């Protein structure tokens, strides 16, 4: 009899990043500004800001240093 491992009820799965959120995070973690990121991705700086706000909300992150640490942990 084999049992499957399921996450414990107290462990909530980590929220997933959308592809564009992941790309935005990678640029910011690499030290690019919002403007540089926006130009590279073909977006407005407002859209870059919106992606980063969404990421911060998903992971309860309050600053760019934490974003960068998360990017490193994700291997971005």
Describe the structure.
There is one protein chain. This protein starts with 18 loop residues before the first helix and ends with a helix. α1 packs across α2 and α1 crosses α3. The longest helix has 15 residues. With 76 residues, the protein is mainly α. Helix content is 58%, strand content 0%.
Topology:
Elements (H helix, E strand, L loop, with lengths): L18 H11 L4 H8 L3 H15 L4 H10 L3
Secondary-structure class: mainly alpha
Mean pLDDT: 84
- What is the N-to-C order of secondary-structure elements (H for helix, E for strand)? HHHH
Oligomer: single chain
Share of residues in helices: 55-70%
Biggest sheet features: none
* End-to-end CA span: 39 Å
Could you tell me the strand content as a percent range? under 5%
| DSSP summary: helix tally | 4
Overall 3D form: globular
**Strand element count:** 0
Low-confidence segments, given as residue ranges, are 1-9
C-alpha Rg (nearest Å): 15 Å
Region (Disordered): 1-21
Protein name: HTH luxR-type domain-containing protein
Keywords: DNA-binding, Transcription, Transcription regulation
Pfam families: GerE (PF00196)
